[in-house]
Write a structure and sequence with these properties.
mainly alpha; Serine Threonine Protein Phosphatase 5, Tetratricopeptide repeat; two-stranded antiparallel sheet; disordered N terminus
């Protein structure tokens, strides 16, 4: 049997060699857009791929979100024994080699690349189908969503709005001016607003709608100082809250209850991490719970954390004590023992643990 297999292998090589010498055709790879996208379902597969990478450790599971928190005035590092890459971001002395940036920067362009493929796929399948057009609107929102994060952090950035089939196409790509990036973000969001659905099945908020796009348009315009445009978009969302099934929660604390299911009425857009499932690119790895948890003390039904990102004390100190949101937004006391019998205030939390 071994002789037959080897002989067959040699014959196969000879057939391949002599049969390929006159081939002029250059076959298209299986992952080329024109080869993959045949139906609306194929476009949806690409759209779903963007959400998988947004819900990854490199992006919304830790690296990007933690970086945004530490760069803000709202948060600070509670335990300075945390890795130096986080301290550099918090202290505004990071460079392009910082381990936070080298994680979320390529992940951002990975998501953008998938969104671009979905958009091109929608065009190939045909946007005269309303379902395909709605999927294209989702993809354009995601592209704008990611670029909106990048442009606010870095300013001028490379802007890519096409599917890359040859790495040489972007080998010498230059940065796009910040102002132009914002205009493209606005154009994508306006397309998503005009062509997106009003609601998704079961009220899911982990996929954007026309209302999501309008809400982000308000945010973008506010960032740019376009106050009238920001007002108009925000008022559009408020005036159409029933259309988009938006409402305020009766209890502000419900927004932060991890036992609540997807689809809270106040959520405009959320990132959904699937429990007990991990993808091959750290998808569904969400470390923001322990990152923001307190090290060295105990809480009911809550494991301890690492005290990496904690509220800046100025925020706690200046927030009006009469505001209920202040009461439910901070953990200002815990227990010194696992039996939960020795309550301590934040002044007595473990040294250097925020």
């Amino acid at each position: 049997m071994k002789y037959i297999i080897n002989k067959s292998f040699v014959i196969g090589l000879l057939v391949i060699f002599f049969s390929c010498t006159d081939l002029a055709e250059e076959p298209i790879g299986l992952l080329a857009p024109e080869a993959f996208f045949k139906t609306a379902s194929d476009v949806e597969t690409a759209v779903m791929g963007t959400y998988a990478d947004i819900a990854s450790e490199q992006f919304y599971g830790r690296k990007l979100v933690l970086s945004l928190q530490l760069r803000s005035d709202m948060c600070d590092i509670g335990d300075r024994n945390t890795p130096g890459r986080r301290q550099q971001v918090n202290d505004f002395n990071m460079d392009s080699n910082n381990g936070m940036i080298t994680a979320f920067w390529p992940e951002a362009y990975r998501i953008i690349g998938t969104a671009n493929a979905a958009i091109e796929g929608a065009n190939i399948v045909g946007t005269d189908d309303s379902n395909v057009m709605a999927l294209k609107a989702e993809a354009t929102f995601i592209r704008a969503f990611v670029y909106y994060h990048l442009v606010r952090v870095f300013g001028d950035i490379p802007y890519i709005d096409f599917t890359i089939t040859n790495p040489d196409e972007v080998k010498d790509i230059a940065k796009t001016p910040e102002a132009e990036v914002y205009q493209r973000i606005i154009a994508d969001l306006e397309f998503a607003k005009a062509n997106g659905v009003d609601t998704h099945a079961s009220g899911a908020r982990s996929r954007p709608t026309a209302g999501t796009a309008a809400s982000y348009l308000a945010s973008v315009h506010l960032t740019l100082g376009n106050n009238q445009e920001a007002y108009d978009e925000a008022k559009f969302v408020i005036d159409n809250k029933d259309r988009f099934e938006y409402d305020l929660m009766e209890d502000f604390a419900e927004l932060y209850d991890g036992f609540n299911a997807d689809g809270l009425a106040e959520h405009i857009f959320m990132v959904d991490f699937l429990a007990n499932t991990t993808g091959n690119n750290n998808q569904n790895q969400d470390w923001m719970g322990p990152i923001t948890g307190i090290r060295g003390v105990f809480l009911p039904n809550t494991r301890g954390g690492w005290s990496v990102s904690v509220p800046a004390f100025t925020v706690f100190e200046t927030w009006d004590e009469r505001d209920y949101r202040r009461k439910v937004s901070f953990i200002d006391s815990a227990f010194a023992d696992a039996e939960l019998t020795q309550p301590v205030g934040y002044e007595d939390f473990a040294p250097n643990h925020g």
